[in-house]
From TrEMBL:
Source organism (scientific name): Amycolatopsis bartoniae
tRNA-binding keyword on record: yes
Name of the protein in question: Peptidyl-tRNA hydrolase
A GO MF label: tRNA binding
Highest taxon of source: Bacteria
Oligomeric and partner information: Monomer.
């Protein structure tokens, strides 16, 4: 069975990166979605601008598709409102929404792409699912690994990447942006086959 793919190439796709706004959180593990969106914005060749939907947005083209890049201006746990508001403004249904987010259950640098599924304890995804009224949107999961020892996962995600991880981070963010472009250009199954290994 082949996995369903994004709407036709003439329709816009909403690419959302999750994170918390402001310099205090900028380098946190929880903000890797913002980091990937910044890389995609560099590829589009533009700057994010405040939008009434509640996100910073940038319109452009990636992998031959018209895309809207969006970084919610709310805190992570309230991401759903800005995502749903931006999707509604651009008339993009849930099947055209791709969310890039950090994932505790994938080792650092690992990537998993999927359509639908649970939120796995991720409050940003929980908020988006509630606001969109469905789980059927695309996720690009950027692995950040599990916290060491008995550290609370809620504390772990709000810490910066380790020194060792920071050396690899630019490469992994670039690779995640490549995976998003593969999803846009070649579809879910091809992107999974290319990026799930390693």
């Amino acid at each position: 069975m082949t996995a369903p793919d994004l709407p036709g190439t003439d329709e816009q796709v909403l690419l959302v990166g999750l994170g918390n706004p402001g310099p205090r959180y900028a380098a946190n593990r929880h903000n890797v979605g913002f980091m990937v969106l910044d890389e995609l914005a560099a590829r589009v060749g533009g700057k994010f601008k405040a939008h009434k939907g509640g996100a910073e947005v940038l319109e452009g083209r990636l992998a031959g598709r018209r895309v809207v890049l969006a970084k919610p201006r709310s805190f992570m746990n309230l991401s759903g409102g800005p995502v749903a508001g931006t999707a509604k403004f651009y008339k993009i249904g849930p099947e055209g929404v791709v969310v890039v987010h950090d994932e505790l259950d994938v080792p650092f640098g690992g990537l998993k792409l999927k359509l639908g599924g649970g939120d796995n304890g991720h409050n940003g995804l929980r908020s988006i699912t509630k606001s969109l009224g469905t789980r059927e949107y695309y996720r690009v999961r950027f692995g950040i690994g599990r916290p060491p020892g008995r550290m609370d996962p809620a504390d772990f995600v709000l810490k910066d990447f380790s020194t060792v991880e920071r050396k690899e981070l630019p490469f992994e963010v670039d690779r995640c942006a490549d995976a998003v472009e593969a999803l846009l250009g070649k579809g879910l199954t091809a992107a999974q086959n290319a990026f799930h290994a390693g």
